[in-house]
Amino acid sequence: MGMRLEVSKEELNRRKENVSKEFKKRNLDALCLFDSHQIFYLTNFKFIPTERPIALLLSEDEVFFLVPELEKDHIELYLPDVIVKTYPEYPGLKHPMDYLRELFFELNLTGKTIGVDSDGAPTVFGYHGPKISEITPEAEVKIVPDIIKDMMVIKSPEEIELIRESAKWANLVLSYLQEYTKPGLTENEISQRASTKATLALVKTYGEKDKNFTGFADYAFAGFRGQIGKHSLYPHALTRNTIVREGDVLGTGAGPIIGGYQSELERTFIVSEPTKEQEKYFKLMCEVQEIAFNAIKPGAKCSDVDEVVMKFFKDHNLTDYWRHHTGHSIGLQCHEPPFLDIGERTVMQPGMVFTVEPGIYVSEVGGFRHSDTILVNEDGIEMLTYYPRDLKSLTIE
Questions:
Q1: What fold is seen in the domain 154-396?
Q2: What is the pTM of this model?
């Protein structure tokens, strides 16, 4: 039997046991979560956040969901053992938070202590509603978003394997992107061709999900996100369907989602023979990334990594070309804490997974950034992404 692309029930039970320990430490009677990633972390139930709030309510012994009626069959398909309370629609004659308040009453929580990841449902897609503290004035509401977030910082072996699997597909889809990149083509046609080919290979490899699978189908995507030529200067550019031309510096990236988890792989391509300036900044970018790799080890602080990177920028007169932190944690979300940044004092531990991506952005020359996903282990790091990093390998001929 092939790899099952979701964390196991045993892993979910361990997570819930850890939450129960936090209940006792923080004197909570219940925990209410709205954040879709935190809910997925505890249940493997993936949903699309909309204006209709979904809440997961954990007591010491039971799991409850508040969902709109349209999600009832969906959630029961995947989680037949949870207790589901529904509301008709939003906006309706009765607000969804009124139904949540009724659930608190049913569970005798009105005079108790309730932990929440946020004081109310998120304001997305036009949703508007009261705070939890407003609908349950008799209860003590504690905002504790860190309970699940802190658990997510150290990845379990199962999570690491899913991120490692993502890195394999990132390598494949980026190789297709490089193969199909030619002067005269638009970024979207190159990206779609590469992504489609890799995704078809992924689907063929994994096959159809069986009825017991609670996650969601996976895909492989790679692209440029507008970082072409002079626009490679902007780390968070947007797709413009730009035509690739000879002499362009290209910012590329891939991050397939496998079982809910993702890696990040970014490479700088150069179209045709690099200029002396392009070669100079490309090599400096590779040097500073290597320095960052070497600074990552258990017991060191996240800020230590950014400090050595910033020293490199200063020593090589590159501070004018700095734009962003050295990296960030990654897992269920593309960006998770902690960050490899000067103000992040978190001590690194085995099991943490980071991207390492110090970039150099030079006007009239281009933006130069590789990003690799690494695992902190007992000795230092393990590279999870492994695409070539040298200039010759990344020159489009």
A1: Creatine Amidinohydrolase (3.90.230)
A2: 0.94
